[in-house]
Amino acid sequence: ASSACQAYRASILHFTADPAFDDKAHAWHEDGLLIIDGGRVHAAGDHSQLRDAVPEGVQVQDFRGKLIVPGFIDTHIHYPQTDMIASPAPGLLPWLETYTFPTERKFADGEHAREVASFFLDELLRCGTTTAMVYCTVHPSSVNAFFGESDKRNLRMVAGKIMMDRNCPEFLSDTAEGGARDSEELINKWHKHGRQLYALTPRFAPTSTEAQLQLAGELARAYPDTFLQTHVAENTDEVAWVKSLFPNSRSYLDVYDHYGMMRPRAMYAHCIWLDDHDRARMRETQSAASICPTSNLFLGSGLFDFARADAAQVPLSLATDVGGGTSFSMLQTMNEVYKVGRMGGTYLPALRMFYMATLGGARSMQLEGTIGNFAPGVEADFVVLDPKATPLLARRTARTESLEELLFAFALLGDDRAIAATYSAGRQVHVRDARQDVPEL
Ligand code: GUN
Ligand code: ZN
User: Fold this and answer.
1) Which atom of ligand 1 is nearest to the CA of 78?
2) Which keywords appear in this protein's UniProt record, sorted alphabetically (predicted)?
3) Which domains does the chain carry?
4) Which residues surround ligand 2, an ion (CB under 5 A)?
5) How far is the CA of 63 from the centre of ligand 1 (A)?
6) pTM reported for the whole predicted model
7) What is the pLDDT of residues 233-246, one digit of tens each?
8) Is the reported ipTM for this assembly greater than 0.90?
C-alpha cells in the first residue's frame, strides 16, 4: 500500500456540471468513500462499491454521520482588510477613504503583512475555504508575505499586487511603469511556484490611469495563463465616477474591455450595475462574475441580478469580499446570496449554491480538473461538514427529508462551526476544537 493513500467514509457530495442547467449535475453518495492518493483524488463513490479498492493496510477514517464536500472556493477577498472587517461607512467610496486606505498602508511592513496573512489563511481554513482569489496591497512585500505563508501551508491560492496610480493617497500609489515592472517580477517569482498562482490586480478603473490600464492589458496578453482580477459596477456613485473619468467608454465594463482585460481567468467582482451588452461580453470572453452578497448588502451597493446573468449565461462564482464582506464563511455567504436571489425574484436551490461555492468557482477560474470536485486526479482539497455542529443545526438536520433540505439547513444556519475539518492536498489543515462541541442530542 502506498503510504500516501488515505480513505474517508462519510456522505459525499460533489458536482460534475451546473445544476441550474443540467439535472444530472451532482453525485451523492449517502454512504460514501473518498480515496486519496498522493494528495489527489483516486476515487469517490459508494462505500459498497469502493471498499475493495482501499489498499491493504490503509485505515479507513470513519466520518459516518458527516458530509464531505469539495473545499470552498472564494473568488474575491482582500487579505489586508482582515483587521477592518465590520467597519461602518455610508457606502463604498467613504468606506475606502476612511478605513481601507489607512489599513492597507501598514502593509509596507513585510512582518506586519506576514502576521496578517498567517491569521487570514488560518481563518479561511477554519471556514472550509481551500482556494481564494486574493487582493494584496500595492506593496510587493505584501505579496511576498502572502505567498510565503500560503506556500508554507501548500495551499492552492491565487493573489496579486494591487496596481493603482491615481485617485488614492500618495502613500499607496505606484506608477504605471513601476506597477507593471513589480507585477512582472512577482509573476516570475510566484506564478506556478508550488500551488501558487498570480493574478494581475488593477484595483478598479478609477484608481488607474489609462497608461496603467494599457500596461495591465499588455501583461494580460504576455502572460495568458495568469489570472486577472478587478472590481466593476459595484456602486452607483462609482459608476458615475467612471463615466466622468472615461467619457468615451460605452460602459464601465467597456473600459476594461478596451484595454484587453476581458479574457478567460479574468474575475470581475460585483457586476451589479451591468447592462445586457456587458453581460454578453462576459460570456463571449469567458470573463467571470464574482458575486459578493454580504459586502453588497453591508455597503448598500445593490442586488446582483441572477435572472439577467443567467439569461446571458455569464460564468458565475461566489465570494465573501472581506473586509467589505462581513463573514469569511462561504456558508454564511450562501445564506445571504439566497436572500439576494429572492429579492430579485430568483429562487436559488441549495444545490446550486454549493455548486457555485465549489465547481462553479473552479470553472470560472478555468481550474476544473485541478480543484472543485472529486473527479480522479483532482487535488484533494475537501471539508467535512458536521450536521450536529450546533444545537439548532442538529435539531433541524434531524428533521430534513431530502438532500436539498439538508444542504439548505447548512447554507442558512451554518458557519465556521459547521466545519469539522479541512484538508488541502490530502493533508489535514484544520480540525475543529473539540471543546466547542455540543453534547449528543
Ligand atoms: N472597489 C475598489 N476597491 C475596493 C475594495 O477594496 N473593496 C470593495 N468592496 N470595492 C472596491
Ligand atoms: Zn473587493
Assistant:
1) 6
2) Hydrolase, Metal-binding, Zinc
3) 5-70+374-436 (2.30.40.10), 72-348 (3.20.20.140)
4) 321
5) 40
6) 0.98
7) 999 999 999 999 99
8) yes
